[in-house]
Specification:
Layout lengths: L13 E8 L2 H11 L3 H4 L1 H4 L11 H14 L9 E9 L9 E13 L6 E11 L5 E12 L4
Antiparallel strand pairs: 1-3, 2-5, 3-4, 4-5
């Protein structure tokens, strides 16, 4: 795979990658360290919550999405450098046994007005479960290098 310079990208381009599997032990381990709430830690306690069962933390879903994004065919020159997130939603929970994949779409490409060596690319990435249902949607602005010379 080659690096994608700003000039290589255009609105409408799509990149896909996955799947990655989610299991109860990983959900609980992430939650124990970063989001220790009962619905992320204990199947029995989780049954009586809004989630009606064990659910991954949204931040765990975000971390899994980032892993998929890094491994995907989308390879911006200079790396995956975020300049901010405009939108982040979790429309449904991630459950043990889910297999997640991502679909990313370039929404906007614009050269920087103040830094001629780079630009900003707006990307929407949707994380889907094995049923094709979205479990996370985020829109991020990324810094991408321009082609040298």
């Amino acid at each position: 795979m080659f690096p994608h310079y700003l000039e290589d990208l255009a609105p409408g381009q799509r990149f896909q990658y996955g799947p990655i599997s989610v299991d109860a032990d990983k959900i609980k381990a992430f939650a124990a360290e970063f989001d220790p709430q009962p619905f992320h830690l204990d199947e029995e306690l989780a049954r009586d919550t809004l989630f009606r069962g064990l659910a991954a933390s949204g931040w765990h879903t975000a971390a899994l999405t980032m892993r998929l994004f890094v491994d995907s065919p989308f390879k911006p020159a200079g790396g995956l450098i975020g300049a901010g997130v405009e939108e982040l939603r979790w429309p449904r929970p991630v459950r043990p046994g889910d297999a997640l994949r991502i679909e990313s779409e370039i929404l906007e490409v614009r050269p920087s007005k103040t830094r001629p060596e780079q630009g900003i690319v707006k990307v929407r990435t949707t994380t889907l479960n094995q049923h094709g249902e979205p479990v996370q949607v985020f829109v991020a602005n990324m810094v991408v290098a321009r082609r040298p010379g």
